[in-house]
Task: inverse folding
């Protein structure tokens, strides 16, 4: 479904991502783990079009989408839940979801929008209760649910998530990851970037480990979970 | 006697204030979309008025057609301004963009002088110039028109931003352009709409006051300052605040000029502007219903 080849990206003089290869197959949950500043977020931004790559290519469903601007990547069926949620804080929950379904609404496809809205409200019933509440007044967990729901409104085939567990209580994280599992069971392919290796490897099929902008390890999630080398990469321990 | 005098000041003030409100809304729209002050806003007003003069007096078009054509021309000018000046300065600092708007205002002012010369011009009153009497005070049909059109525009804008998908997308893009892009909203396009909108509002103000004031190529600066003061008074980001700011400024100005001396009229807006910036820079109406970016 997604094929990333020798992808490089950066900011100013900083090369945050150096020639990374990565592949996501239909129906998989893939996780990219690594410490702060390892290039995980940069990878997602470069795929989703928030950041223009400096080299390499991104192939999505056979189409080359390298460097395509974010507002045109969504239509291809790929949506990013950005780091820090980035909700429209003064808008209501419903308005945020309307923005998520912007492409449907703009093309006057009301029935598809309605169906999607019911779907995300069933996935996160708490959002239905909060329909007319300003997004900025929601709790952290509810905001993360809204951010995911908003991305789902565009009916993506591949969902990219940037640290959905950030700043949340363990119980809430469990709920959110359970929702991701359900989505995956229903056929959604997921690429998840996380700092918390334990929870994300427990969810994922396969994982990639990033360090200073490079992919240093890859393999089955369960293997990585038990591999002492992963811990060393995290804590920078020398052998 | 005194009552009718005060009433007269208030009527004049509200009518002038409605114009300031339209200009202030233009400032607010562009500030929200791009975080800059558009110093060419006053020129949009003047060119609106003068283009209407050309279409009506020189080209002999029927008045409503001439007015709409003038508004259309200025709207396209706003679009061109955004596409050819603001958009290419994508990642420039706000201050560079603001200087670009000052450049644009000089360009437009000079252009207007070359096209229309230095003569002042005026349009006929849309609905005759026979004043109405209200309890000893008088109001011109043109002033009633100005108040009515402002009311229609303010209500229309609220409905547009609250009820339509494009309106909400413009709000979303102004709150968080990057997140909006991730939803498929073309944030740059939304900025262009804001400039178009804002230019159109300026033109509506321009054609509406053209029958009441003599307008020449250099009239934009004073009108721009009035609208800017009104926008600052209203908190700059808040459209409703801009309207209240415009109306209050109009009334303060007219009452002040009436009670003290009309020689002070032009100074009053500047005094209000300075006082707001000194005492409450966030604007007097800054908090009412602001819809700004929050994380």
Result:
């Amino acid at each position: 479904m997604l094929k990333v080849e020798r992808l490089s990206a950066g900011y100013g003089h900083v090369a945050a991502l150096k020639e990374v290869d990565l592949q996501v197959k239909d129906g998989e949950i893939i996780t990219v783990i690594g410490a702060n500043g390892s290039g995980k977020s940069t990878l997602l931004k470069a795929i989703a079009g928030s950041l223009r790559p400096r080299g390499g290519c991104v192939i999505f469903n056979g189409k080359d989408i390298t460097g395509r601007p974010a507002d045109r990547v969504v239509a291809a069926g790929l949506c990013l839940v950005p780091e820090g949620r980035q909700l429209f804080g003064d808008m209501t929950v419903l308005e945020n979801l309307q923005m998520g379904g912007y492409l449907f609404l703009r093309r006057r496809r009301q029935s598809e929008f309605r169906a999607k809205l019911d779907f995300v409200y069933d996935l996160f019933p708490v959002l239905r209760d909060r329909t007319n509440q300003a997004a900025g007044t929601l709790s952290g967990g509810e905001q993360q649910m809204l951010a995911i729901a908003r991305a789902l409104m565009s009916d993506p085939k591949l969902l990219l998530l940037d640290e959905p567990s950030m700043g949340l209580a363990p119980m809430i994280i469990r709920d959110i990851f359970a929702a991701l599992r359900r989505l995956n069971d229903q056929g959604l392919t997921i690429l998840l970037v996380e700092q918390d290796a334990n929870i994300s490897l427990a969810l994922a099929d396969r994982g990639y480990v990033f360090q200073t902008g490079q992919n240093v390890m890859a393999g089955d999630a369960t293997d990585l979970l038990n591999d002492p080398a992963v811990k060393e990469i995290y804590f920078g321990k020398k052998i | 006697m005194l009552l009718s005098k005060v009433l007269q000041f208030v009527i004049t003030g509200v009518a002038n204030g409605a114009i300031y409100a339209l200009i202030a809304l233009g400032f607010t729209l562009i500030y929200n979309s791009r975080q800059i002050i558009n110093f060419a806003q006053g020129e949009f007003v003047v060119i609106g008025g003068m283009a209407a003069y050309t279409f009506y007096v020189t080209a002999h078009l029927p008045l409503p057609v001439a007015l709409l054509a003038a508004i259309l021309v200025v709207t396209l000018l706003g679009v061109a301004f955004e596409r050819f000046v603001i958009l290419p300065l994508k990642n420039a600092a706000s201050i560079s963009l603001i200087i670009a708007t000052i450049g644009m205002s000089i360009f437009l002012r000079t252009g207007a002088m070359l096209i229309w010369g230095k003569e002042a011009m005026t349009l006929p009153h849309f609905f005759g110039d026979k004043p109405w009497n209200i309890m000893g005070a008088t109001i011109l049909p043109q002033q009633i028109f100005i108040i009515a059109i402002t009311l229609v525009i303010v209500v229309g804008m609220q409905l547009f931003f609250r009820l339509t998908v494009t309106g909400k997308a413009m709000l979303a893009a102004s709150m968080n352009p990057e997140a909006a892009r991730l939803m498929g909203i073309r944030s740059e396009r939304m900025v262009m709409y804001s400039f178009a909108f804002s230019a159109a509002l300026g033109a509506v103000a321009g054609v509406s006051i053209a029958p009441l004031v003599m307008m020449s190529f250099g009239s934009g600066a004073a009108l721009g300052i009035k609208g800017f003061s009104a926008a600052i008074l209203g908190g700059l980001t808040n459209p409703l605040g801009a309207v209240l700011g415009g109306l209050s400024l109009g009334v303060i100005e007219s009452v002040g000029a009436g009670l003290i001396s009309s020689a002070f009229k032009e100074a009053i807006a500047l005094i209000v502007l300075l006082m707001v910036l000194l005492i409450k820079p966030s604007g007097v109406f800054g908090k009412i219903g602001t819809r700004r970016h929050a994380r």
About this structure: The interface with chain B takes residues 48-50, 69-72, 74-75, 79-80, 82, 84-91, 95, 98-100, 102-103, 105-106, 136, 150-151, 154 of chain A (CB under 8 Å). The first helix of chain A runs from residue 40 to 48. The two ends of chain A are 37 Å apart (CA to CA). Chain A has a mean pLDDT of 93.
